[in-house]
Specification:
The chain is of the alpha+beta class. It contains 13 helices and six strands. A hairpin with a 7-residue loop joins strand 3 and strand 4 (about 100-105).
Amino acid sequence: MRLEERNNEVSRECKAITEFFAKGNYQSCVLKGQSNICLYPDGLKGLRTPGDIDLWVWENDCKILQNKKKLVSVLWKVSGKQLDVAVHHAECNIFPKTPVEVHFVPSFAINPVTDYKMRRFWAEYSDCIRLTDAGFYIPTDGFNLIFQMSHIFRHVLLEGIGFRQLVDYYFVLKSFFEHTSECKGKLSDAKTVLKEIDNLGMNRITSAVMWIMKEVFAMKEEYLLCNVSEKYGRELLNEILEGGNFGHSSEEHAKLKVDDEGNETLTSKLEGNYATIKRGMKLFWSYPSECLWVPYLCVRASWVRNYWRKQVL
């Protein structure tokens, strides 16, 4: 009952923040968490543990957000203080109990060439959203298959992934294939979705996820996007079991030093970057085109955060 109440509360907050940005001439779309419960069957909708709100935001008169500084300024004024700005999103304090991450783009790739392709993809398919009965927008199933695969891939390479993300992907797949006849327009068939996944360099991780869908979740073969890979699937399964979401169960995470308030210290940040690079090198032979660029991403992410910390509210 508490989970259901909390889910209802977060859904109301999703509607409220959607209306807030709409008043400022921004289009928005709820990603991951609260958008996924719309795809769960009735008996499970309210039982998914809710987290923060991930909101993709862009200006109505642009294909995709252009003036990042303008949006960050709005977020800081609403929050009343400067908050962290990362490569693809900014934190925002709007609700007392629910953290909000406002995304400039839904996700990003580690390889700069693939990242450029991904940004073009987000711009081209930014209209692949639909309004829910709860009053906020979510991605279409075809868009979701590509976006959430990129999210899984990035977490696997950088931080760690848990089964919750795989359970979400199970229901996205199920919804996509069960409602194929109702889908119209862009990304409405599996062939097109798979073509875009291949173009974004995610065919190998997709075959690994499909193996888990088949062997762990007992998904029907007609619901799988592509042929499965036992080799990469078992490797992915081991990563999930060893580290979990954000690698919280890994030894590297347990060793990170934090201050008395639980915040990262300079030492823990350096250790964190080292652990990220070490993780990337561990998976190098499976995903070389992305893992090779992990050190570059660590530098880029650090530069972005430091740049925004120097800006004036």
